[in-house]
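As noted in the main text, all predictions were made from sequence alone. Below is one such record, for Septin-9.
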Amino acid sequence: MDTLKESPSPCSSRHNSPRPAPCEMPATVGIEAVLDQLKIKAMKMGFEFNIMVVGQSGLGKSTMVNTLFKSKVWKSALPGPGVPTPQTLQLHSVSHVIEEKGLKLKLTVTDTPGFGDQINNDKCWEPILGYINEQYEQYLQEEILITRQRHIPDTRVHCCVYFVPPTGHCLRPLDIEFLQRLCQTVNVVPVIARADSLTIEEREAFRSRIQKDLKSHCIDVYPQKRFDEDPNDKILNSKIRERIPFAVVGADQEHVVNGRCVLGRKTNWGIIEVENMAHCEFPLLRDLLIRSHLQDLKDITHNIHYENYRVVRLNESHQLPRGPGWVNLAPVSLASTSAGQGWTYHS
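Prediction:
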């Protein structure tokens, strides 16, 4: 009698089959894509950076700006023979768009020809401080409009590079008087101009004297110690503060040294390479202004210096101009404030 072979039942095959793997949720939700979005937006809009250079004529301010951005941003206009020196300080600004790897930077450079060149330099800093505050005022007036622009043009000075003459002694009374006022209004980065006129020993001694002058007169230059927040920033900024003021040399002409093309100044005894740390500290200044602290300079300008100006002006709000489209920020009585009438619109 033949043995009947039982066919496997569907239930038995179901039990013998491997169990499906549990559903795995993705490890990330894509938050890192925000960085790509910010990058794309920044590439479209570009950046604005406004820098002011202050110092006596002949210290290489125009050359230094051209060296920083490797472009003919500023053309020097030194008076020729027989041309008298300007009797008053005059401020000149020029804007230049620099593009690198698809990113655009609108650079505005403000020069101060005539500063400290006169016999009587009494209050020669007032036009400079007036110009800085004027840019704050323009931004404030745009900000308090009821119908504001989507992007308010930013002409505020983000950094002021102060050129100290290479005397080898110490800061002059003019430097101290001006820096005390300037540091309360804008980020100030002092530099020793034309440092190639000093020996290495003279340079270090001069730097040490300047640092003592800054400390004894409570001149808080950038980067300000009180604004250090991140531990890594504290370490980096401490190293920078040890080297300030930077001993710099500017040059916008190229020379061939050992088969490579370098920016430098040619002398009878050789070529001073501006990007060689053994020759000067220009790379430190460039890294500070562009590569590591550019956004921080803008943030401190907006959150600290402009905010201080804004608070003072709003406390003096009765002096703000009134007209179509402006908010009346004049002080109001407690009764009107409680009724929700803290401001009125003038048409």
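Residues 294-315 form the longest helix (22 residues). The chain has ten helices and eleven strands. These features were considered when defining construct boundaries for the mutagenesis experiments described in Section 2.9.
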